Amino acid sequence: MIDVKEIKSKFEKNMIDNMERENAQKILIFLANQKCNFIEDIVTDYLDLFAFDYNEFVNKYENLNNKYNGAFLEKTSEDMNLLEEFYYI
Question: How many angstroms separate the CA atoms of 64 and 89, rounded?
């Protein structure tokens, strides 16, 4: 279960307040459709990824998935630091 207190301690209040819920929901659904089994971990540690526009997020995901030969989520489940690449691609 997601610990809201932990999230609030990790991220700036204005980032959380300004996050567009509908956009974040679309990203969550996208990750679920990709069979991501560590969505809670992403929310807890990389909540700011949900601030990306949905289309931009999907494009970045597809580029990273291509870079890792279709195994981006598998590799990320072993090393969540790979999510940092979203900020640079």
Answer: 8
DSSP code of residue 12: -
Question: What percentage of the chain has pLDDT greater than the value 90?
Answer: 63
DSSP 52: S
Dihedral Cα 64, 35, 24, 62, nearest 10 deg:
20
Q: Are 89 and 68 in contact (CB under 8 A)?
A: no
What tokens appear for 22 in the block? 């509908």
pLDDT of residue 45: 84
What digits encode the pLDDT tens for the residues 49-58?
998 999 999 9
Residue 20's pLDDT is 78
Q: Are 23 and 54 spatial neighbours (Cβ–Cβ below 8 Å)?
A: yes
